[in-house]
């Protein structure tokens, strides 16, 4: 599949002097709430006004959206403010209603992206549409599922495509509601460089105090835009109250966020950058060499365990290593979560290495 420059023409046609901003409440709750929030965003950097009409919830019993009634409220938003409209769709019925009410941008949520059947149903319902269709990453970090959803839509002759990075679920407690795993978004961008890439810092952070820093990271990584949940009174929101910001906060954020240059033609800068990158290349080579030596030692331990009929996993030893390395990393200014993830990957590879020896 080839994503051409024409597939991002919808974004280029907006001729924005800043990254694209999609903002509005997590859920459309009442007509007054929808209109009041929209009027506060009128005349700002916001281009698309978002509001959840149908809210897929992890567990039953929570507020799941007011449904199609809210589409009439969104129509009034467009009439009153001129803002373009955006909402999430999860099936062909949602698509049909959104087309009927002239919603400008539709996105497929993380829970829907995991199902090729759901994505195909939506792709069939949207076949040949000129509407903008964005795909959120699947709940779990699976690049193939994300790419597959995009490819299904592209195969249905949907020209105006894009993706939204909203982070990934994890059973471990972390700083984030959904861990960013920025590298996966970068890998997708490398695969399809012409595909517009948005960031949803609200769902990544889960707390409104984290939205600015996550947004800045996304812009530093050359993301094309942001989707930020914005509510006139976040504390009283019917869903995701902790991660929504007020319109006033959003406007201030848009003023304070910095858009970096993709490159610089300054000779001194480029010379300094080349030197530092050369240093990183040398260090990377040393890292691979050291990891290889470590695996050699792991292999010898595997042979020793095999000869003495000893189990591969020695949990006490593993706990000691993880604790020691986390402490050492922290003393060197490294993020403890990064050190933990790094050593868990090394440990898993060590287990695999020893398993081959013991069972081979």
Describe it:
The longest helix has 41 residues, at 267-307. Helix 13 runs antiparallel to helix 14. An eight-stranded parallel barrel has the order 1-2-3-4-5-6-7-8, surrounded by five helices. The chain has 360 residues and is α/β, with parallel strands linked by helices. It has two domains: 5-256, TIM Barrel; 267-359, Up-down Bundle (Chorismate Mutase Domain, subunit A). The mean pLDDT is 93. It is globular, with a radius of gyration of 24 Å. The chain is built from 14 helices and eight strands. The two termini are 41 Å apart. GO terms for molecular function: chorismate mutase activity; transferase activity. Residues 267-358 form the Chorismate mutase domain. Keywords: Coiled coil, Transferase. It comes from Elysia marginata. This is 3-deoxy-7-phosphoheptulonate synthase.
